[in-house]
Write a structure and sequence with these properties.
Elements (H helix, E strand, L loop, with lengths): L1 H35 L18 E4 L3 E4 L4 E3 L5 E3 L19 E4 L2 H4 L9 H9 L3 E3 L7 H15 L3 E6 L2 H5 L2 E4 L2 E2 L2 E5 L2 E5 L11 H16 L1 H4 L4 H8 L4 E3 L4 H18 L3 E6 L3 H11 L9 H18 L3 E4 L1 H11 L1 H5 L2 E2 L1 E2 L1 H15 L1 H4 L3
Parallel strand pairs: 5-6, 5-7, 7-13, 13-14
Antiparallel strand pairs: 1-2, 3-4, 8-9, 8-12, 10-11, 15-16
Helix pairs in contact: 3-14, 4-9, 9-11
Length: about 375
């Protein structure tokens, strides 16, 4: 009898925990809807598919955008992947006999903004010249170079803009990112050699784990509260030290070698290569601290890879890239108007205003090389 009572008590406690969690989620959802200006008791139209960065597993690249995919991101901004696998700019295609290819990570793809709000889309409008958006969320330098080589061969652009943030060097020394396996390069006699491909298909969780995973996906796609907490699962994995699986600490050396190989590809197709260095908001503050004489704290990996990003720009120049460093533009705003003015260009990633700001700066740096296309 005691055993039965204990068993019944355990189930009652479990039920109370579940009810408490659901009640908490409902309260949080109601509070978020009030904050967002939505009706608390109205069923929100989720007819548009939430596609986020619209990627799927790829055995060679780890993941890639899905061609002809269309929907919205968690900010309800339109996301359109064209049949060629590139993101739409949401613009009528300009009439020009020349074009630019932009590659990179989520800052190029335009996570959290709509098709027409990315910096490649804004640059296309400014230059009246096609700008192909080949960015992919979560890519490191290694994956970006692989995609740049593939797309340069396919589209043969006149200008290639390889866009990076300091974190991408970190990713280049990892074999896994947020639970996703990825290709990586290791140095053999100083030469980057591709490893970890082809990748095996990811396993779908089964049983309770699968049910929990699907439930979390549903909440991520259909709850305003969950949408207001971007990358929740990624942040949890970071807390559990599972965001990255590092296989070596030679991300800078590998990245420099890969940019040299990419320069050879660009030469083969008469493409002029540029390296564009973008920054997370914290990177800008860290670099300002460096310029003001602040010494990096031991073990500060954000500062470590910011310093490596400065070295990467130097080695890319040596490899024949022209470098567009956006820091001076952000610093000018910081010095004139303070950190709040810089923060206004970000909402985790760059927002629409931040992307337009970067596009205008890139346009000025390209200068006479594109003036004849207008």
């Amino acid at each position: 009898m005691d055993r039965e009572n204990k068993s019944a008590g355990w189930y009652v406690n479990l039920l109370l925990v579940v009810i408490s969690l659901l009640t908490g989620l409902l309260i949080a959802e109601a509070a978020t809807r009030i904050w967002k200006g939505e009706a608390v008791f109205k069923w929100i139209d989720f007819s548009q598919s939430v596609v986020g960065c619209a990627v799927a597993f790829d055995a060679c690249a780890g993941w890639k955008p899905v061609p002809s995919r269309q929907g919205v991101n968690r900010e309800q901004r339109p996301v359109t992947i064209l049949p060629n696998g590139l993101r739409s700019n949401g613009n009528p295609s300009p009439e020009s006999d020349r074009r630019i290819l932009a590659t990179g990570d989520s800052y190029t793809f335009g996570d959290q903004v709509g098709d027409h709000e990315t910096w490649p889309a804004a640059l296309e409008r400014q230059l009246a010249m096609p700008v192909l958006n080949g960015g992919v969320c979560g890519y490191g330098v290694d994956q970006t170079v692989l995609r740049s080589q593939e797309l340069t061969q396919r589209f043969r652009p006149d200008i290639l803009i390889v866009s990076l943030i300091p974190t991408d060097i970190w990713r280049a020394q990892s074999s896994e990112l947020y639970g996703k396996h990825k290709p990586y390069f290791s140095l053999k006699n100083g030469i980057p050699v591709l490893q970890n491909v082809p990748l095996g298909s990811p396993e779908t969780p089964s049983g309770i784990a699968g049910y929990f995973s699907r439930s979390l996906e549903y909440l991520n796609d259909h709850s305003l509260f969950m949408r207001s907490m971007p990358n929740l699962r990624n942040r949890l994995q970071m807390l559990r030290n599972k965001a990255y699986i590092e296989v070596h600490n030679e991300g800078l050396e590998v990245s420099c070698g890969l940019l040299g190989q990419l320069r050879d590809t660009a030469d083969r197709y008469a493409t002029e290569p540029y390296l564009l260095m973008l920054y997370k908001y914290r990177d800008i503050n860290n670099r300002i601290d460096l310029d003001n004489g602040t010494s990096p704290e031991p073990g500060d990996r954000n500062m470590e890879f910011l310093l490596k990003a400065l070295e990467l720009m130097d080695c890319s120049r040596s490899a024949g890239f022209k470098v567009i460093d956006t820091f001076p533009a952000f610093e000018q705003i910081y010095r004139a108007h303070g950190s709040e003015a810089v923060a206004a260009l970000y909402s985790d990633h760059m927002n629409a205003a931040g992307n337009a700001f970067v596009a205008e700066y890139i346009s000025r740096q390209l200068g006479d090389r594109v003036q004849r296309n207008r």
